[in-house]
Design a protein that fits this description.
Blueprint (H helix, E strand, L loop, with lengths): L2 H22 L2 H8 L3 H8 L2 H23 L9 H18 L1 H9 L8 H16 L7 H20 L7 H15 L3
Helix pairs in contact: 1-2, 1-4, 1-6, 2-3, 4-5, 5-8, 7-8
Length: about 180
């Protein structure tokens, strides 16, 4: 099987697992979405569980690379307000670009052995501590709040019945936290 065929199946599986969850995702639907037969899918991945695990591992690798490049401290920028604003805007893009994977992580967490969300919260908390040093706050809680907000704001964007203006909500979030964190 060519790498292109495999990637098309993995992309289709990511989409279907995100929309329907593990239990609702049928291999027939994944195969149809990818443009291949169910036999081709099983030839390569053997089981739905193998396919699911491969989707998780490949996307975990990709998102962690993105997180590593995103959470690099800009030594030249000293203004914590600018750093915080840049962080939030970059995270909005990251969650938006990887929403299907993030959605799977949230709704299928019992099937995921090593919690990517815990790793991500920990990375973000460490970064927040660097840009907002010596604050009397729980950086892990702040990281969790940021990620929760980002998930729901992007979920709102992805639904047909949006009830929030994305840009306004992000600006309000940044403003509120900048003021309360005394940036």
């Amino acid at each position: 099987m060519s790498a292109d065929t495999e990637q098309k199946i993995l992309d289709a599986a990511l989409k279907v697992f995100s929309e329907k969850g593990y239990n609702g995702a049928r291999t027939r639907i994944i195969a149809e979405t990818s443009g291949f037969t169910e036999m081709t899918l099983f030839r390569k991945f053997e089981t739905k569980e193998n396919l699911f695990n491969r989707v998780l591992s490949e996307n975990k690798h990709k998102i962690m690379e993105d997180v590593d490049s995103l959470l690099v401290l800009d030594e030249e920028e000293k203004d914590p307000k600018v750093q915080f604003r840049t962080l939030i805007l970059n995270l909005v893009d990251l969650v938006d670009e990887n929403f299907e994977y993030v959605n799977i992580i949230i709704y299928e967490r019992e099937k995921i052995p090593d919690s990517v969300s815990k790793i991500f919260v920990s990375y973000l908390a460490s970064y927040l501590e660097k840009i907002l040093p010596e604050r009397e706050l729980d950086y892990t809680v702040l990281a969790f709040m940021i990620l929760s907000f980002l998930y729901f704001i992007i979920l709102n964007k992805k639904t047909e019945e949006t009830f929030l203006d994305l840009n306004h909500a992000i600006e309000e979030f940044i403003s509120y936290h900048s003021n309360n964190l005394e940036l």
